[in-house]
Design goal:
The chain is α+β, with helices and mostly antiparallel strands. It contains seven helices and 32 strands. The strands form eight sheets. Strands 2-11-10-5-6-7 form a six-stranded mixed β-sheet. β5 and β6 form a beta hairpin. The longest helix has 24 residues.
Length: about 450
Amino acid sequence: MEARGSTALYVCSILFTLTDVSPDFIHVPFSIHHGIEGESVLLFVESRFPLDDVEIQGTWSHTGPSGIRTTLVTFNKKTTIPDMTYRDRLLFREPNVSLEIHELHQADEGDYHLQLNIAFHNKTGLVIKEERTVHVTVDVPVSTPVVEKSPSYAVVEDKANVTWTCSAERGTRVVFQWLRDNVPLHHRDRYRFSRDNSTLLITPVRKEDKGSYRCVAGNAVSRGRASEPVELNVYYGPYNLEVNSGQGLRTGEVFTINPGELVFFECQADSNPPNSYVWISKSRNATVITEGPRLEVRSYKLAQAEEYLCRAFNNVTQKQNEAQFTLVVASLGTGKEKHSQDGSHLSPVAAITVSSLFVIGCMLLFFLRRTCHPKRVLMSIYNRPLSEQKRPHRSGHEDATEDFGIYEFVSIPGKMESAQASCRSLARLEPLQDMHTTIYDVIGHVPETPSQSLQN
């Protein structure tokens, strides 16, 4: 079996040699290593051949930034000969021919070359040559960066420039990134970066540049580290000046209020620092009424319509802005528009009073309907016992003048279709007279029973 394996390996070697294709007897996982100054780095090599069946010979060499090439170690299967300059910092690991370097210096940066010759036993004249190159960088970890701003005080928009500088006390090949309010900044018309991004120039400064600035610094051997935030204060404005009121009715730039109403107006604008405000009456030859963001107007002191102006002024930027409006005095009525503008609602006491009066009125109407309806009176008489209907009573016809009045003819449903009755006005009844008896007298004749009337 060993003979067959050796034969197969020999045949493969011959084929690769004839076709000028490397059989990859060794493998280097990483072609670049980022080392940290003062620490170790391992240049790992994986061998893919049986060491017992071959003889090896090779070297590790180093080419620095200056281009000078230095042999670090020469080795074979039995012996390792390091360069005397590096022998205290080099460790050659057999049998995979890896190289470990201790206490890295900046001078150790560069390219490391491996040259390896492989000769198979009992195969005279067959030598396989392998070469690999590994690049090593040596960096210092980055310390926490510091941001500086020039000028250090607040600036006025469109009149000043700001220069930001980010620096780290330690670190090599540092990469910088700028953030405003934790949002990365990129190149644009007013933003200019240095080649390594350590400096940012904003020219000129504007309102949208205000905020919290910081920089993030990092390199190949350390993650990004952020600086402490530094605020940029920008003086600007006034912008977006508006006049508002929670009263009256507004249509565009016209406010309509009720006569005698007290109205307040607010003047607001976006500005830093806050503006100073002046209220002017244009209808009174541009007379200054008052100062401050609030205006109080009593409508009974106004004519039918007056024009006003609010002027906002920034003492730092020396800029101003104005907003005009017209105030009209007119009755808005009591409709929905007035309530919606005034924001007033029906008071609880008034609501209770109205509800109580409504309930009392309904009760009175129901009581009168039940007690004074003529139809119900006649029905009560008709349903009285026969003995009560035949008892003595006044005729009501002694004096014809007493028969004068208002009569109503009512048909009694379900009892007789042809019988009708009349009722003397209740206003003519004597106070102590029985109401049922009086109505009976006026009717004159009521059949004793509904059957008798039908027989007649």
